Amino acid sequence: MNQSLKIDPYGFREYDARWVFEKDINITGITSLGKGLGTQIIKHTKKENPRVIVGHDYRSYSEGIKNALIEGLVSTGCFIEDVGLSLSPMVYFAQFNLDGDALAMVTASHNENGWTGVKMGIKKGLTHAPDEMKELKDITLKKNFILGKGDQKEIKDFQEVYKKDLIYKNKINKKIRAVVACGNGTAGIFAPEILRGIGCEVIELDCTLDWTFPKYNPNPEDLKMLHAISKSVKENNADIGFGFDGDGDRVGVIDNDGNEIFSDKIGLLIARNLSAKHKNSKFIVDVKSTGLYTNDDILTKNNCQTIYWKTGHSHIKRKVHNEKALAGFEKSGHFFFNQPLGYGYDDGINSAIQVCHLLNDQNKKMSDLINKLPKTFQSPTMAPYCKDEEKYIVVENLVEQFEKFKKDNIKIDGQEIEEILTVNGIRFSFKDGSWGLIRASSNKPSLVIVTESPTSDNRKIKIFEFIDKILQETGKIGNYDQKI
Fold this sequence. Notes:
Number of domains: 4
Structural class: alpha/beta
Number of strands: 21
Strand order of the largest sheet: 1-5-4-2-3-6
CATH class of the largest domain: Alpha Beta
Number of helices: 14
Helix content: 25-40%
Mean pLDDT: 95
CATH topology of the largest domain: Alpha-D-Glucose-1,6-Bisphosphate, Chain A, domain 3
Shape: globular
CATH architecture of the largest domain: 3-Layer(aba) Sandwich
Largest sheet: 6 strands, mixed
Radius of gyration: 22 Å
Distance between the termini: 51 Å
Strand content: 15-25%
Low-confidence stretches: none
């Protein structure tokens, strides 16, 4: 039966593609996306039969979607090497290991059930940037497809190749007791085994694969998931707790006292640790990250520079690559380690391993390491609903509004705005180091709000209340996913 084509243009996001399956895209639409991607890969690689590495996550419908995507890719002339049930970083690794020309990973990461999507890349270690996504959208929607004769084959047991690579390079001496939480997502068949392999004692939490996500979405920024890990760390007297997202490219961290640590603070600890061995390095962090990187004593002493850049795994990955930075850290839990530490892509399990190395090298408890950092009061990442077709215009207007606040010396909790960064939405900061951020989400119909203050918890809240008041006045904002 020929199904009529359904593909919502808004599914083409800044650096990947995501839709609610059946509602926004159907199987015919997925095959069309495969034709568009295959055409784009052939155009960029200038090869008639480029080799494309393909994998899928554990959602009930992901394998069927992958097969439809492969059908489209093969019709353009691509040779597919299917590594099967995967994490996104396993597919990134496979492109290096199998020397592939491009990759496509079928996943909606941590999005709720019903969502599907594809993460894709051509140049090794990088994923599509906004200009490549725009090109893919144009090719797909205009049906400017190349016709060719492709092929496909399964690569058996590649999970073992990926696991062994991480284990072999990362043995630790210290016995670290780690709670490993996977929210019933795909990381459950990878993370416990790999962390045991490097020498950790692992306590598993929700590591059985269950695509219904019975407790909560596997998302290390989700407070429910973080609270569950915290409880398990305390009950088991663990040294550390790790929470992995649905496709395994992000990690959340809980310290030995059960405290949730935002990933930007973990990034700062790792950057400090690395800066001693790698002086004069650059680090890239996203605009949602703590302001502590700017004037950090240890980074300054080791002549390291931090650059704040656009949120999004593709943006940070590319910036790490272009700046030849040693590492990049994103508040959502994507960490990127460049040569000599890694291939530049985000791998949540490798990030957890780097935290284990930190504990091994410093021989201190995580709580002691965190307590050495200057104290700041940080909000969680909050996402009020805002339509896809309106969110960027809302943010554009807010940039103008906040620039006027700065010019007119408007005070927020008694503070005037000292600096405005507009590389990604608007990040406004004050003399005391407090700041607020408003940006459009790259993969959902929502805005993203974060606030932080090194002065007081009350100031963090006052900055949020100011932002929220301005947002409500736009009339374009719906409910928040979570709020302080």
